[in-house]
Design brief:
Layout (H helix, E strand, L loop, with lengths): L2 E16 L3 E16 L2 E6 L6 H9 L6 E9 L2 E2 L2 H7 L4 E4 L12 H6 L5 H17 L4 H4 L8 H13 L5 E5 L7 H16 L3 E6 L2 H7 L2 E6 L2 E7 L12 H13 L27 H5 L5 E3 L2 E3 L4 H6 L2
Parallel strand pairs: 3-8, 3-9, 6-7, 7-8
Antiparallel strand pairs: 1-2, 1-4, 4-5, 9-10, 10-12, 11-12
The chain binds adenosine-5'-triphosphate (ATP), iron/sulfur cluster and magnesium ion.
Length: 315
Amino acid sequence: MAKLLEVENLSISFTQYVQGLNRHDSRVISDLTIDVDESEIVAVLGSSGSGKSLLAHSILGILPYNSHVTGEIRYKGQTLDQDLKEKLRGDEICLIPQSVNFLDPLMKVSEQAIGECKDDAEHKERKVRQREIFARYGLDESVDNLYPFELSGGMARKVLLSTALIEDPDLLIADEPTPGLDKKSVEETISDIKNLKEHGKGVLLITHEIDAALKTADRIAIFYSGYVIEINDVKNFSSSETVLHPYTKALIDSLPRNGFKLTEGVQPLGEIPGCPYYENCPIRTDRCNKERPELEEHDGVMIRCFNFKEANDGA
Ligand SMILES: Nc1ncnc2c1ncn2[C@@H]1O[C@H](COP(=O)(O)OP(=O)(O)OP(=O)(O)O)[C@@H](O)[C@H]1O
Ligand code: SF4
Ligand SMILES: [Mg+2]
């Protein structure tokens, strides 16, 4: 399978000025590596504030002005620089944004979904597709002429979904696409995402709902404190014995109790010399507090931990 998206050693930090002139740089994403193949759904699972939306926005080239980015992003083997991001955005690469603020408040929602057209014939063709997708999500014709402020939260989310799917993108970045949706629309969304995959497309599904990731993804990347700590096949998430990182194991063991939601434990932020999971890790050693483990491949699994072999051999 050809690689569609490759993110290599991506770090994102922000420059802020505290009390006037005191400059402060805060690192939010560190050394992030992830990839999506054609015909593949990769879920990024992380708790609130762990940098998931920033990852999405960096791929689309819509990060805030005070951000500083290092690392490389490639799309179909080509470096995804700002020019290429702008060229492909909303066309080959589409975003289902997390926030409904992405809707243009001054434009009727059907026209936003249809987008720019070169002539009337194209507009007519896209209007048919817009209506078809809106109808699939239970948005009847009366919705077409509404402005975003006239929509309920759930309707606005459905408009965002439809607007991304109307393009039939090669790469879809879905940033928390399902919260706030009714059960039928959640199922519809999952089915649409899977349908893209069946047609050779790639999807990066960003979520803090493990259940959605387990039902949809081929691989799951676990985010902890701005680092990817494990990328593993979805089938291995059925038991804590078949995942490798101590945090992933703790996560899976806690699932039935917490209703399949990520626990919101305190995660260290900013520059730390050692492993980000050091404070909570049951198998830590002195080395872990001094040196930071790299994300490395082990039998097809990407893992960031010095001691996982010993821990898993002993299991
Ligand atoms: N413009 C900015 N300046 C400074 N910090 C920012 C800026 N934008 C985002 N951040 C910080 O980056 C961190 C990650 O934000 P992000 O929105 O990517 O998290 P998330 O994982 O998507 O969370 P959620 O699950 O709640 O959507 C947050 O702590 C946020 O405060
Ligand atoms: S590197 Fe050390 S502290 Fe970090 S997860 Fe592995 S054993 Fe635990
Ligand atoms: Mg987010």
